[in-house]
């Protein structure tokens, strides 16, 4: 199922190529030290301030990142985990100067093994992985130090 044969890249080609590259690079989360990953993702905060999007253009950009990340990840021949998708989406949001936050959570169930999940939000928008996020207790959130504050101003 090559992407170019089904026309995925024909529409919004640049965004889908960026999503594909971001997803491939994000797979490095499995081999790089966690310290390097935190430098990419930003500072750890238990509950980061939610910065507001400035206008509808930024909201549309965030929505496009969400759709491109999900669409391209579904066409790869390998499974892109929630962490890979979240890192890729976070990197794409940051490239656009949007306030993405990568959340990590765990699910504790006495009848099942410990499971973890990662998801991304941008202001009040769900970007990737948020469908199952309510089932997980948040343990950390990563937000870039270059993000805007909650009032929309620079940090």
Please render the helix and strand layout as text.
Layout: H1 3-6, H2 13-26, H3 34-41, E1 43-45, H4 56-75, H5 82-95, E2 100-107, E3 115-122, E4 125-128, E5 137-143
Antiparallel strand pairs: 1-5, 2-3, 2-5, 3-4
Helix pairs in contact: 2-4, 2-5, 4-5
Order of helices and strands: HHHEHHEEEE
Low-pLDDT sequence parts: 1-10, 145-155
* Rg over alpha carbons: 16 Å
- Compute the separation of the termini in Å: 44 Å
Helical content band: 25-40%
Number of strands: 5
Class per helix and strand makeup: alpha+beta
Strand content: 15-25%
Overall shape: it is globular
Task: Please list the strands of the largest sheet in the order they lie side by side.
Answer: 1-5-2-3-4
The biggest sheet amounts to: 5 strands, antiparallel
Mean model confidence by pLDDT = 80
Report the total helices: 5
Description:
The chain contains five helices and five strands. The chain is globular, with a radius of gyration of 16 Å. It has a five-stranded antiparallel beta sheet with strand order 1-5-2-3-4. A hairpin with a 2-residue loop joins β3 and β4. α2 packs across α5 and α4 runs antiparallel to α5. It is an alpha+beta fold and 155 residues long.
